[in-house]
Amino acid sequence: MADPLGVLVVDDERPARAKLKRMLAADARFALAGEAADGLEAVAKTRSLHPDLLILDIQMPGLTGFEVLEALAAPLPQIIFSTAFDQYAMHAFEAAAVDYLLKPYDGDRLKRALDRAFTLHAGVDGTPMNRLMGQLALTPLERLLVEGEKGLEALPLRAILRLEAEGKGVRLHTDRGIFEVRRALKDLEARLPGHRFVRVHRSSLVALDAVLRLEPWDHGDGLLILKDGSHCVLSRTYRAAFLERWGMG
Length: 249
Known about the structure:
Elements: E1 5-10, H1 14-25, E2 30-36, H2 39-49, E3 53-57, H3 65-71, E4 78-83, H4 89-94, E5 99-102, H5 107-123, H6 127-136, E6 143-148, E7 151-156, E8 160-166, E9 169-174, E10 177-181, H7 185-191, E11 197-201, E12 204-207, E13 211-216, E14 222-226, E15 231-234, H8 236-246
Parallel strand pairs: 1-2, 1-3, 3-4, 4-5
Antiparallel strand pairs: 6-7, 8-9, 8-12, 9-10, 11-12, 13-14, 14-15
GO molecular function, one term: DNA binding
Domain Response regulatory: 6-118
Keywords: DNA-binding, Phosphoprotein
């Protein structure tokens, strides 16, 4: 018999995790790889344990279930979403989840979801997960996952003062210090709220509420002074659009 598939159980409620673990113990096709109580722990444990399947709550502290998946590198494990909020069902199915468990559910309902996961695992071609990542790439960002001094940290957008392209990634200048993420600036720009962030240079974006004043610079460019005392160049190419968004157009 093949080795059982490893399952990571992710839920911020201890009783919900305990219930899932009891149900999983009755199915020899699966083995508990671990458990996580919030989104940040889920990312860390998925990266270290490499489970075949995530049974993943959607509404959690730190990161939502959808944000957990976006923080993970391909190939992703199979996903069964689990939540008490049925308004997320459409998003879950659009994200190509194996199944969607609406709490409270019983052992028979979980078994049907596990049956689907086991069948799909045997012949998976990657298409559902590719569709998942495509869907997630269209959703607006609410925060960014960064590596802090104490490990993974969910950085709220309000903490970001400006973003600067740096090599193959982006340097985030924030009120908590500087962080780097391995993402393209243009991809972040497309998903950041337009009423809060604006491009000021081909290699940088700025948070509008972080700008204190605009000073003359060189050859039609300007110098933006930010509330933390730092500054960045406003290219003349983006000057008109910036002023309009900043409320001076």
